[in-house]
Amino acid sequence: MSFALIHAKPGRTWSTLLSWTLFAAGIAAYFYVSQARHRANPEDRVMPTVTQMVRGMYAAAMQPAEDDEQQVSGKFFSSMLWKDTKATSRRFFYSMILLFPAVLLGLHMGLFPYAGAFFLRFVLFFDKIVALSLLPILFIAFGIDELAKVMLIVIGVTPTIILDTFNLTRGVPAEQTVKAFTLGAGDFDVAYRVVLKQIAPRVLNSIRLNLKAVMLFLFAGEMIASTDGLAYRIALLRRHMGMDVIIPYVLWVALLLFLVDYGMRLLNRMLHPWFRES
Amino acid sequence: MPLIQIHDVSVRYTSPVLSGIDIEIEEGEFVCVLGQTGCGKSTLLRLILGSEKPASGRILVDGIEHHQPDRTRGYVPQKYSLFPDKTVLDNITFGPEVSEFNLFGRCTPRFYRRRRELRAQAFDYLRRIGLRAEDARKYPDQLSGGMQQRVAIAQALITRPQILLMDEAFSALDPGTRRDMQQLIRDLWQATGTTILFVTHNTREALRLGTRVIVLARESAGQGSRVMLDLPVPEPCHEHEIPRLIDRLETVQAVA
Ligand SMILES: Nc1ncnc2c1ncn2[C@@H]1O[C@H](COP(=O)(O)OP(=O)(O)OP(=O)(O)O)[C@@H](O)[C@H]1O
Ligand SMILES: [Mg+2]
């Protein structure tokens, strides 16, 4: 058979089937082990059964959060899950907005030699600071409110984005900028109408690749000092081994991140139809 | 006064590339620059553009020393000549748009009126360089190499530069297309009177196009290139003279 060949051409059905196999196997293995553990010890809390997880998730998503005494309007929108998701998304959104100046800074550093000379060494050093080690300092300096968490993300992720944009800017062939000047463009035309437009899809890809880092720092901040958010909930539930909610939460986070990533990919394709990923 | 004056110019990177170059070019000339690969032809164009500085010597264009490329000197580079993120149409209209409107000027209604005019003009250029109207919406990487070169020429010409610098513009083309393009550029030169500096590897092409051929070559390895031959091309150039001229030009190039 031709399974192990480089030139093998699996059909559509086969590809789909194969791509889901590991998911199915993972789920099956989990439930098998979980059932076995529950047979041995009905009180087992490490691997909750499906019913337990569904019940836990139902409580998280469809019942008003305990600290909420208002009139329930929509069930979901006053639930714990919704509140946590909202809080985390808000922080995520702020940090995404803060990446925008980072892109512009990288662009200017790459194009304008004086800006490059001024910032590059510092950013390179800044990039080497282990953001998590700054956590205590941040909490002391900015308090334990939103600012500290957003700053953590800024410190953790922006240097990477700045340097990435810088390198992408440097990678634009000199012919392109020279050409633009000969066509009558000024410095800022070259920066925004030639170079930025050309690197935009790659910058967006680099941000996509850094989504995980953004989430990592966000979660670290939430776990350590927060009163809401998805990571706060996970950390809180850990104390009473609330695995029936933790596991669905983890999957929910993965799903959200997947959707954001997918959305950015679609956006990229829509905004830059000329771009071919190589 | 000559339009381009190059006085005793030397350039070196790790080793000397150009040394003691003296060239004067009058307005309206069509100068072809010949030379082996690596002899510094592209470097010479970059010096005239002002994107590179000579180690010594002066380059005056219209009596002024330029330190930055600008729209008086159009450029068709050897590669990366089109903006990959813009359609053919937008590539061609980029020059006039960018020089007439700044980033904020693009939000005014006047910009859209002007753009309509420019697009009409661009379609006219498209027709002249032999592209179809439906190619206007394509992106550069959807065009063949020859079409890309044609668009790059239209893009440079629409701003009506005083000088046009072309770097091996036709070297990636098949002989047929190449001939068409040579005819095209020759016609455009005659129609506009633009001063053209045309870098090429191809001796026959240089003779067919230029009113003057300059050969750059090194006298010995480790030295910078010099002007080894500066030859006015007889006009019209008779077919029987061409082999002799080619022979002469190629012998000179092969000294080093
Ligand atoms: N930025 C640079 N840094 C170092 N060396 C360079 C640089 N640009 C060009 N050179 C060197 O200068 C010499 C001339 O380069 P140039 O591109 O002008 O040659 P060319 O005559 O245009 O060659 P070709 O016909 O292959 O295009 C080459 O030996 C090249 O290695
Ligand atoms: Mg060259």
Question: Would you write up a description of this structure?
Answer:
- The complex is a heterodimer of chains A (278) and B (256).
- Chain A has 278 residues and is mostly helical.
- Chain A has 2 domains: 9-47, no CATH class; 76-271, MetI-like fold (Orthogonal Bundle), CATH 1.10.3720.
- Helix content of chain A is 75%, strand content 0%.
- Chain A has 11 helices and no strands.
- Chain A has helices spanning 12-40, 50-62, 80-111, 113-128, 135-142, 146-171, 174-182, 187-209, 211-224, 230-239, 243-271.
- In chain A, helix 2 crosses helix 11, helix 3 packs across helix 8 (187-209) and helix 7 packs antiparallel against helix 8 (187-209).
- Chain A starts with 11 loop residues before the first helix and ends in a 7-residue tail after the last helix.
- Chain B is α/β, with parallel strands linked by helices and 256 residues long.
- Chain B is 36% helix and 23% strand.
- Chain B has a 6-stranded mixed β-sheet, sandwiched between helices.
- In chain B, helix 2 packs across helix 3 (109-128) and helix 2 (88-100) packs parallel to helix 4 (145-157).
- Chain B starts with a strand and ends with a helix.
- Chains A and B meet through helix 7 and helix 8 of A and strand 5 and helix 2 of B.
- Magnesium ion (MG) is lined by residues 41-42, 78, 167 of chain B.
Count of helical stretches of chain A: 11
Low-confidence blocks of residues of chain A = none
How far is it from the N-terminal to the C-terminal residue of chain B, by CA?
Answer: 34 Å
Largest sheet of chain B, in brief, is: 6 strands, mixed
Q: Total domains of chain A, how many? A: 2
Outline type of chain B: globular
Shape, principal axes of CA atoms of chain A: globular
Number of helix segments of chain B?
7
In N-to-C order, the SSE pattern of chain B is EEEHEEHHHEHEHEEH
Q: Oligomeric status of the shown chains?
A: heterodimer
Helix share bin of chain A: over 70%
